Every structure is written in C-alpha cells, then in structure tokens.
Amino acid sequence: MTPNQLLDKGLAELGLDLPADTRERLLAYAALIAKWNKVYNLTAIRNADEIITLHLLDSLTVLPHVTVDRIADIGAGAGLPGIVLAIVRPDLEVHTVDTVQKKVTFMRQAKIDLGLKNLESHHVRVEQWQPAKPFPAVISRAFSDMADFVRLTDHLVADGGHWLAMKGVYPHEELAQLPAGVRMKEAIALRLPGAADIHRHLIVLERN
C-alpha cells in the first residue's frame, strides 16, 4: 500500500473527508519528516508507512476534539500534532514550542514549504514563554507526565481553557498526581487506524 493509499484508508476509518490539497500537504509533510530524519534525527520513527500511521493519523485522532480557534502545542518535536492540525484547520492559529533548535528549525521550514500562514514555531523553554495572550487550549503529545505538563503551562491556559494531553494507555497514576486546582473533565478513548493493538486516550483537564 502506498503512503497515499494508507492515508486515505486511515482518513476513511476516522470519518474525515479532507480536500485533495489538504491530503497532498499531509503527504508532503510526511515526506519532509522522512527527509530531515536522515540528518537531524527528528523522530525515532523512520519507516514511511509508520510516519503516516503513528504520526499523521495519530495526530488526526484528536481533530474532532479541537474546537478552539487558537492552540499551543507544547514539546512539539517535529510538529506533532501542531503542524498536522495547522494543515487540516487553516482557520486554527497554531503555535508550536520546543527547546531543541533543530526541531524548531524543521518546523519553521515546514511552515515555508507547506505554506502554513497559521503556524508559528518558538524555540524557548515553555515555562519562560510569554505569548501576547493565553490560549483556550494547550496540547501535548510528548510530555511524559501530566503533572509537569500542567505545572509548566499553567500561565498559558486562559480562564475557562483546557489542557489536552495525548496519552497511550489510560494514565491512572498520572491523574492521581495532578496538582491541586486541576481536574479531569473528560477521558476520550481514541482509535488509531491500522494499529488496533495500540491504546490511545485524550485526557481533557480543566481548573476546578
């Protein structure tokens, strides 16, 4: 199965009907990751099919639950899920943040190559980042611990805003260690096309 066919099959399983130019941008982004990976080691996943499944489609599983107009992706790495969201939601203002210069350089090049006017990438420690205004949602796919995610990004979340934590198996222990003043609003089980044996959850957090 070609990457194009794999993407189309995954989109159909997710119930996403994306325009042809959006699908082409997603494939171009996957190709960029594969190309840069040869030199910059952006991600441990190098196989073209796995980039489609474990990066693109995995990022797209949260799309129905991103209902805001501005979002910050913290510890974005190669731009996951932030760049994927920016591609499929041109109306969404996306800010990606990472402390690794080469990853931010890649994301900025991806913005140019893919023509993403709604994307800004920041090379900064998240706790030191001071955007002009807070966000209605911050998301992360890479933070190992939700308590740290909340603690380091508390200043970024607007009143009434949410943290969106992309996790694997249901994170019982991490939820038990959330800081005071923050609670789980919702836990959403996600199904990853082409990887039925892989568990995915989106944990939505809010202030008490």
From TrEMBL:
It comes from the Bacteria. The lineage of its organism: Bacteria, Pseudomonadati, Pseudomonadota, Betaproteobacteria, Rhodocyclales. Its EC number is 2.1.1.170. The keyword Transferase applies. The gene is rsmG. Its main location: cytoplasm. It catalyses: guanosine(527) in 16S rRNA + S-adenosyl-L-methionine = N(7)-methylguanosine(527) in 16S rRNA + S-adenosyl-L-homocysteine. Specifically methylates the N7 position of guanine in position 527 of 16S rRNA. S-adenosyl-L-methionine binds at residues 75, 80, 126-127, 141. It is found in: Cytoplasm. Belongs to the methyltransferase superfamily. RNA methyltransferase RsmG family. PANTHER family: S-ADENOSYL-L-METHIONINE-DEPENDENT METHYLTRANSFERASES SUPERFAMILY PROTEIN. This is Ribosomal RNA small subunit methyltransferase G. Keywords: Cytoplasm, Methyltransferase, rRNA processing, S-adenosyl-L-methionine, Transferase.
